[in-house]
Each structure stands twice: as C-alpha cells, then as structure tokens.
Amino acid sequence: MPKKVRRIKVEGPAQLSAHFPLIQSTLKSGGLIAFPTDTFYGLGADPFQEKAIQKVFQLKKRSAGKPLIVLASNREQIAKLAEDISENAEILMKRFWPGPLTLALKAKDTLSTLLTAGGKTLGVRIPGNSLTCALLEGVGPLTAPSANPSDEKAPASADEVANYFGEELDLIIDGGETPGDKSSTLLDMTTHSPVLLREGAVSIADLELVLGVPLHKTLDIKQ
Question: Is the pLDDT of residue 43 over 60?
Fold first, then answer.
C-alpha cells in the first residue's frame, strides 16, 4: 500500500482551481509537490527559491551536476526563465509546444546556479497536458524532474510517487495515470546548430523535417 501523504484528487483543470490556495501556500513556503505531466509525474518546486531547489536535489538524491528542467504555461513565463531565443528555437516552439519537447535555452542570469548546475542553459518546455498547464497558469513555473529517486523508474501514477517518497513530499496532485512511456526529447538550442541531448517522445525525424537540417548528437545519448 502507498505510504500516507497529503493528496488531492482532480479529474481535470476545472477541479484544480479550488485547490490553488493550498498549492500556492505550499510552494511559497518552499515545499515540494508532485504533479502529472504529459510524460510522467514531476517533482515541483518554485524555481525562483534556492532552498526549494535544494530540497529537490536532496529528495531525489540527484547529482548537483545535473540541471533541472522547468515547465511553464506560456511564453510570458518562459521570458522569466530564458533569453536570447534563437530563430530555430522559435520554429520548434511553434511546431511542438505544447508538447514533450524540452529546449535548453540561455538561462536568465537572475536564476539560481543550482537550477542550471552552474551552467548557462536551462531546459524549459510548455507541456501538452491541460491539467499541467492549468496548474502552471495558476501557480507559475515549476521544476519538473521526474518524481522518483535517481536511478529509479519514473512514475506514471500518484501511487508510485507516494511509494517512493511518502511523507517526505508536502503534496501530491493526483490527476490519474500519465502516458509514462517516453521522457521529453531534449535539444540544446544555444549552439550554432541544434544538438540532441536526449531522445524521447518527439522523434529525430520529425525535428529534422521541421528544421530542415540534420541534428548534431552528443556522444553519450542513450540509444
């Protein structure tokens, strides 16, 4: 049986708004939430609070050398996270957002270096899930690494999240099962030519078709 943790069950965006005061106060106080996305359940914290970001790393037992992905609901929120967005990035945003494509963009220098693992880029995306977007619209951008300890299977249900973390989490938003098959595709858009950092739900063929050029690939991509 799942360990006990505070949990709210919602079946769609319309039910979520009633819970915004609780969710907002949890995040404002530096708490951690788990929430459904268009891939797996994510581990959410306020990306503008360094102490909250530290909690994400501690809970996941994540290496400080691995940056976090942040989800946003619209371009206005993206503008608070990233800058100097390239023409190719704009093309991909228009074609694949909302959806499971994460773009590594130049991070705003006001962000915590813990969020970017000391680098200059930040992975961001607008997810293709109406419940997730409604959450982000109501509370702002959220960190979104998968809600599991590092090296464990990413969770597709609230029960799996509860079994991983139990009362160490402040809140779970239970939106039912997520697709849970593939992570988002990750591209570095800060180089002269886009570089594929992780294969995922958006295919290489579709990306190359839209961009009109072959993608460069890192040597350590998991096949």
Answer: yes
